[in-house]
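Appendix C: a fully annotated inverse folding record. The material below is reproduced so that readers can follow the format used throughout the book. The structure is listed first as tokens, followed by the designed sequence.
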């Protein structure tokens, strides 16, 4: 889920360039939130039924690509499940048949958060506001579904007239609008309930990447790095964020290398906690954990080496910017909407094994392989009735908290949807959704020893093309979203570990393995960019503005 310097080009919130410019104006930079009148038509957002057994399968998903993809498709099916509109009167324009939206397109956006928070916070007494009393998200969201009824500027006839203008499937889809981020009811409820933690989060400096008081039970990690080094080369690895216990670094291969290891800072030839002894590429070092471990590899001659770093990971369980971890039914989606002007096309991307190999062998960059102009029955399409603006959806990120470190899924439109990453798509995904491919990650490192993941045909071929093998970074990159050199070879979890920080996408891409591996144990927003900073929704800014206003106004 990483974006480069074109951070505001498709929609106002941090998306990638859509290259659809007319007379010097980027018309794709148009975002429409879920307005109060549209929320009245949609009704309350559809809940997400979390699979509460999935967290117990974390290790299975880490070590099996097949199990991971099967679980991901099940999540996708629930996220895309059709949900009828909340106002049955909409059916009058559709021959008595009430249209529906995919579940995610009924979910809440930033406008809903702001509307509900202000409603609930202003209902508190001055004393309750000073005490930062709890609010009732469920009551607020129930009010939100019919909040339009209390707006004098929207008498019933005006609303009915508006409803009558919605008479095509694309306009019905447009009622969900083209907001960048959507929050399931579980996610939105928790974010609202965490308003005081979010407010405090903005008043404090960014927490350190490593906290020496981890509370989650640690898990064994074995990360491998293969490298070719010329004589006198010095290659730095890490940091590796280790919990309690020893950290063991071993090397194998050919040539002559030395390992330099240091806890808490980069290792140098003169400053290190351990230096391996020997005159071969088979070396080892052991240091104490509970900290960030840095490794440097020095080649005394041309060498081929594989370095394995084995340790126990442990991370801070409680995100300080939230009232505890996000609940299991918390799901966020990030939508990439592309404004369509006339017969305008969108880029297409070949994800076959040979093409992926060639991408990785060059700049690891998503370079278009042509263009297409898919009609609305082949790509999810929305028309905003109030403006007539037409949008296509070539990509959709999905992150589900059914796992402690989330389940990271991304969908992208394809001109050849039944090959490679779409070959195992369930038949239940019909309509325009039958034209989307999918990848998934559940961990920073790949745990499946079979790079094909047990998959036949083109799917297995492409999986093998993007896999470095067990112990190397996982892969899951969306061609419409992860732009720039190196970004085609990344994953979502590596970027989101920095959620809530002011770390830029460009900086993340300079980190080890282009930012795909774990370098922190303190996820103080529970991996969410939307809470604070990062060019996201920055929900805590809305909280701070409201709280500070009443702090200054209350008697």
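Designed amino acids, in order:
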């Amino acid at each position: 889920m990483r974006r480069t310097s074109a951070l505001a080009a498709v929609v106002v919130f941090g998306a990638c360039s859509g290259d659809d410019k007319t007379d010097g104006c980027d018309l794709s930079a148009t975002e429409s939130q879920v307005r109060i009148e549209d929320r009245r038509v949609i009704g309350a957002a559809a809940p997400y039924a979390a699979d509460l057994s999935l967290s117990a399968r974390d290790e299975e998903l880490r070590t099996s690509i097949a199990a991971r993809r099967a679980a991901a498709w099940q999540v996708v099916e629930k996220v895309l499940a059709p949900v009828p509109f909340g106002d049955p009167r909409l059916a009058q324009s559709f021959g008595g048949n009430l249209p529906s939206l995919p579940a995610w397109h009924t979910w809440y956006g930033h406008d809903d958060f702001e509307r509900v928070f202000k409603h609930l916070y202003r209902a508190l007494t001055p004393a309750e506001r000073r005490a930062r009393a709890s609010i009732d998200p469920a009551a607020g969201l129930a009010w939100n579904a019919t909040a339009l009824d209390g707006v004098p500027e929207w008498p019933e006839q005006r609303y009915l007239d508006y409803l009558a203008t919605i008479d095509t499937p694309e306009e019905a889809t447009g009622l969900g609008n083209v907001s960048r981020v959507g929050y399931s009811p579980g996610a939105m409820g928790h974010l609202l309930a965490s308003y005081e933690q979010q407010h405090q989060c903005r008043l404090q400096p960014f927490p350190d990447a490593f906290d020496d008081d981890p509370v989650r039970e640690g898990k064994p990690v074995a990360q491998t790095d293969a490298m070719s080094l010329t004589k006198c080369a010095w290659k730095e690895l890490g940091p590796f964020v280790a919990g309690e216990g020893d950290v063991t670094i071993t090397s194998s291969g050919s040539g002559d290398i030395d390992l330099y290891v240091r806890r808490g800072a980069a290792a140098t030839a003169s400053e290190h906690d351990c230096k391996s002894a020997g005159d071969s590429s088979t070396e080892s070092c052991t240091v104490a954990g509970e900290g960030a471990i840095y490794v440097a590899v020095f080649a005394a001659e041309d060498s081929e080496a594989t370095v394995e770093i084995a340790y126990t990971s442990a991370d801070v369980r409680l995100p300080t910017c939230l009232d505890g971890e996000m609940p299991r039914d918390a799901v966020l989606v990030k939508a990439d909407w592309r404004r369509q002007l006339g017969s305008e096309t969108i880029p297409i991307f070949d994800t076959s094994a040979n093409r992926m190999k060639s991408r990785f062998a060059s700049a690891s960059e998503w370079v278009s392989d042509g263009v297409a102009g898919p009609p609305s029955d082949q790509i999810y399409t929305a028309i905003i009735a109030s403006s007539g603006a037409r949008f296509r959806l070539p990509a959709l990120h999905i992150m589900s908290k059914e796992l402690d470190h989330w389940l990271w899924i991304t969908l992208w439109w394809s001109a050849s949807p039944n090959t490679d990453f779409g070959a195992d798509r369930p038949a239940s995904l019909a309509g325009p959704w039958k034209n989307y491919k999918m990848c998934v990650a559940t961990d920073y490192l790949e745990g499946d020893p079979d790079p094909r993941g047990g998959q036949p045909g083109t799917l297995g071929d492409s999986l093998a093309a993007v896999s470095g093998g067990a112990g190397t970074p996982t892969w899951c990159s969306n061609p419409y979203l992860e732009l720039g050199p190196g970004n085609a070879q990344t994953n979502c979890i590596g970027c989101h570990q920095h959620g809530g920080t002011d770390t830029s996408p460009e900086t993340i891409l300079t980190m080890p393995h282009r930012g795909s591996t774990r370098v922190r144990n303190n996820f103080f927003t529970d991996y969410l960019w939307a809470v604070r900073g990062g060019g996201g929704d920055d929900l805590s800014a809305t909280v701070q503005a409201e709280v500070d206003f009443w702090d200054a106004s209350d008697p």
